Amino acid sequence: MSCVLRFIRPQLATSVDQPPEGENWIHEIKHDGYRAQVLLEDGRARVLTRTGLDWSEHFPSIVHAAVNLDCHSAIIDGEAIIQDENGVSDFEALGSALRRCPHAIMFYAFDLMHLNGRDLRQEPLSERRCLLQGLVRKDDESRIQFSEEFHGDGAAFFEACAERKLEGIVSKLATSRYVSWRTKTWLKTKCFTESSFVVIGTDRDRKTGAMRALLAHPNGEHLDYAGAAFIALRDDAREEFLSEVERLATTNAGFGFTRLYGVRWCKPELTVRVKHLAASKGLRHAVVKTLL
C-alpha cells in the first residue's frame, strides 16, 4: 500500500540571546542531534531527515519504537540523539553511533502535526503537545521519549541548562500554530557560542593527556591569551591542523605563563573556529570545530 502521509517541512526556531519572558511560553531542553520526523501509517514507520530523506535504515530502534505507538497514523517532530553517561546529548558521538550502534540512538518527540487522519498544524501548540504526551506514554525503555517542558522563568531554566553543560533551550509560544518556516514563535537560546581564535601552540591536558590548542585573540598589535580548547576535528581536518601546527612551529614562547607546561609553540598564523560556553568570561568547555 502506498503511503498517504508526506513529509512536512519543519518549523525552525529563531536564535536569541536571552529567553523570552511571560507565562505564555513553554521551554524545552535543546537537544544536540539530528532533526527528524517520524511518519507512522498502517503499522509501518519511517524516519525522515529535516530535508525529507528517508533514513529509516539508520534509525532501526526509533522505527521499532514507532510501530508500537497506539495509533493508526501520526507525524511526529523531534530530534534523534545519542546520550552520554550523564544523559546529555552528544553530537560528536552521534555520527559514530550511526555507524556502530544505531540501536542506542533515541528520539525526543516535541511536536505532533498529524494524528489518526487529523491535521493538527492549525491547533495550538499546547493542544498538540497534550495529544503527543498521551501518544508517547512514559516508558523509560522506549527509544521514543516525550520532550518535557518547563513553565515559568525562562532565564532561570536557561541558567540551569548552562550549568549542566547543555546546548541550550527552545522557547515556544503555547498558542502558536505549526508553520514550515523559521518563526519568532519558536526561539532558541544557546548556552554555547562559537568564536574565532588564533592558535599559538599546543599542549596536553594534565588529566586526560589529550591534545589541546592554545588560543589567543588579536588586540591591536598584540595577542591576548584566551585559553585552551580540545581538538574535535576529525580525519582530514585534524591532519591539516597538525600539519599546519608543525609547519608554523617556533621556539619563541607566545606567552610567559608559568602554569603552561610541555607547550609546542607556533607562529600565530592559523585561525580556528571554537565552540565554547557563552556565559563564561574565559574559554570553558571549549573545542576546536573548524579551520578558517
Specify the CATH class of the largest domain. Alpha Beta
CA radius of gyration is 22 Å
Number of strands: 16
CATH fold annotation of the largest domain? D-amino Acid Aminotransferase, Chain A, domain 1
Q: Tell me about the largest β-sheet.
A: 6 strands, mixed
N-to-C order of helices and strands: EEEEHEHEEHEEHEEEEEHEE
Determine the fraction of residues in helical runs and give it as a percent range. 10-25%
The CATH homologous superfamily of the largest domain is termed DNA ligase/mRNA capping enzyme
What class, by secondary structure content?
alpha+beta
Q: Do you know the CATH architecture of the largest domain? A: 2-Layer Sandwich
Which descriptor suits the 3D outline? elongated
> What gap, in angstroms, lies between the N and C termini?
50 Å
Total domains: 3
Determine the number of helices (DSSP H or I, runs of at least 4 residues): 5
Low-pLDDT stretches are none
How would you describe the oligomerization state of the chains in this entry?
single chain
Strand content of the residues, in percent? 35-45%
Arithmetic mean of pLDDT: 91
